[in-house]
Amino acid sequence: MIPVAEFKQFTEQQPAFKVLKPWWDVLAEYLTVAMLMIGVFGCTLQVTQDKIICLPSHEPRENLSEAPCQQLLPRGVSEPMGDLRELSGLKNNLDLQQYSFINQLCYETALHWYAKYFPYLVVIHTLIFMVCTSFWFKFPGTSSKIEHFISILGKCFDSPWTTRALSEVSGENHKGPAATTAGQATVTLTTTAGEGEKEKVLPEPEKVVTEPPAVTLLDKKEGEQAKALFEKVKKFRVHVEEGDILYTMYIRQMVLKVCKFLAILVYNLVYVGKISFLVACRVETSEVTGYASFCCNHTKAHLFSKLAFCYISFVCVYGITCLYTLYWLFHRPLKEYSFRSVREETGMGDIPDVKNDFAFMLHLIDQYDSLYSKRFAVFLSEVSESRLKQLNLNHEWTAEKLRQKLQRNARGRLELALCMLPGLPDTVFELSEVEALRLEAIGDITFPPGLSQLVHLQELSLLHSPARLPFSSQIFLRDRLKVIRIKCEELREVPLWVFGLRGLEELHLEGLFPPELARAATLESLRELKQLKVLSLRSNAGKVPASVTDVAGHLQRLSLHNDGARLLALNSLKKLAVLRELELVACGLERIPHAVFSLGALQELDLRDNHLRSIEEILSFQHCRKLLTLRLWHNQIAYVPEHVRKLRGLEQLYLSHNKLETLPTQLGMCSSLRLLDVSHNGLHSLPAELGLLQNLQHLALSYNALEFLPDELFFCRKLRTLLLGYNHLSQLAPQVGALRALSRLELKGNRLEALPEELGNCGGLKKSGLLVEDTLYDGLPAEVRDRMEAE
């Protein structure tokens, strides 16, 4: 016999595929195995034993009835045919070869085809059922998706992160509002599920006590594996949700099985009666055997008849199973899958519903074990992913590693700067000594209750790092935070909690207004910022935001950087009565705004990177009696008006990077001037009246076209810095030795052939402060060089 194990390959798929086999597919497999055994058993009998045995009929040809074998049937089977004659002991005079010949001939001609091929038909039909059942596991277009899904599903099911995540949410769900005891320090609990934030604030926010987790912590390797699983699930979901080939293929093979079942059932019921024990055979073999009629016995008829009815019974059960499957397929929306029950059970409200093939496979998984879907859903939750990222961050950024990044910033505060991280490590809040926190290009940040441990925090920078702050943390920072910097794509992304920090002294905002709102330039109210002294806004505003007037009584410094967008309305500036410093950078200004002249307390004005061509309005600065610094650099100013003489209190004047060719002689009347920068212009000469600037300490003349210097210039005995680089000077007057306070002298890029030895009289000038070509320096007398090189 042929062992049934030889057909095992037709029914056995990979063991992992069993999760995609609902109970009806499992039952169908057992039924096909039973039908296959029937077919194999029948084929074995058909091959190994005699098929038919025939005996000749002794009735004369003219007396032969239509059914010569009816006389041999038992009385209970055949119809009464009158007197039966016993035929026993007759000699046929046939040898063995003639009997074999008659047996084979009658088998081929007289036996019905159904009786002959029944076992083979059973095997063929069963194999077709097996192929239909497992075809979608073998077809390239579907098998790859199934294998990928099974692989990911198994890893998600076995991942330690799945157990931890479900345990955490289960623990949170069982905690009630009264879970905290009287002696326990309070915790601020923030749950974000895409709808908002809920906070519960209890006393002593500085002390945060959390219960130890019920499950063991993940090590770094397990965390990285779980992180990779999240990425695989995301990509697989996008790939599978695009089509429904799995759903379509499963329906097609099920419809094919139903059609096959109906065909088998019909023809088997019709032809099963053709399997008879006695078969009449008439063949013209009288010349060979002497007989033309034979009565044949089909030896397997009784057994085949029983097997046929048994096979039909199995087929009926199989067919009913297939019909139920079709009902299940068309009665339920299998191309949509909702995780509502999982969301309610686990508390992960952000688990998304899925569709198409992804949904269909999850429906099949539920028929096997719904626990698979529940554990798989953990890797569809963004909240779960963010928790995992947080855990991995804490593994990677330990407190010791963060302490190595601490350094003093420009303000002298101990600063921790983190850039381009997937999140904010919890270990940051273990560094209680941090005074400034700078976060750049970090994903969505939700500050935990542990923020209250940063008791020395005074400065916070959020650069392209959107952050949410629970109410308890807002209370903590409200009076502590002094400086905050926010940089984002659009100003409407600035968190609202920023405008409630009443202890804030400096607010720096950088972002664009939407095109439709740029002209109005509406900014949130600043009324709560009672201590604000510095406001910096870098945007594309069409006017000074009206909310600036909310802090007019205490704002001391205002900086507006418009990146080239034209600032049209500046009337709000008139209300800033105590403003000391004003920057209007890259605001597209063509004239000095008249609103500036109303600022009686103004001390510094910066108008760089504008389009100023004329500064005739400089006369009005005499109303700004406290003005000390005027920066008009990086413009297109062609001349300085004579009215500059009115600015007698001006101490610093920046006119570099303009188009000046001459300076007015009245500039020498600005007796308080200590710094004058006219570098990067087109000056050919200097007025001798510059020698009247007896308080001048810094003079920048680099990158001009000066050919000589007036001797009166060296009357400025307090001059410490003299920058003359990249001009057309051919000599340096010996009077330079009168500048005893000179400590920095730049002469590079000129046409000098030698340096005067009187440079040795400049007691404060050292080699490091003398910027000149090496050949000119080597031309100085040795004693001069020795004195410059001496410490």
From TrEMBL:
Compartmental location: Cell membrane; Endoplasmic reticulum membrane; Lysosome membrane
GO terms assigned for molecular function: volume-sensitive anion channel activity
Short name of one Pfam family: LRR_8
Biological-process GO terms, alphabetical: aspartate transmembrane transport; cell volume homeostasis; cellular response to osmotic stress; cyclic-GMP-AMP transmembrane import across plasma membrane
Domain LRRC8 pannexin-like TM region: 1-326
Bilayer topology annotation: Multi-pass membrane protein
Gene3D superfamilies: Ribonuclease Inhibitor
Catalytic activity: taurine(out) = taurine(in); 2',3'-cGAMP(out) = 2',3'-cGAMP(in); iodide(out) = iodide(in); chloride(in) = chloride(out)
InterPro entries per record: Leu-rich_rpt, Leu-rich_rpt_typical-subtyp, LRR_dom_sf, LRR_domain-containing, LRRC8_Pannexin-like
Residues that span the membrane, as ranges: 27-47, 117-137, 308-330
Keywords: Cell membrane, Disulfide bond, Endoplasmic reticulum, Glycoprotein, Ion channel, Ion transport, Leucine-rich repeat, Lysosome, Membrane, Repeat, Transmembrane, Transmembrane helix, Transport
GO CC annotation terms, alphabetical: endoplasmic reticulum membrane; lysosomal membrane; monoatomic ion channel complex; plasma membrane
PROSITE patterns registered for this protein in UniProt: LRR
Family assignment from sequence similarity: Belongs to the LRRC8 family.
Name under which the protein is recorded: Volume-regulated anion channel subunit LRRC8E
Organism in which the protein naturally occurs: Ovis aries (Sheep)
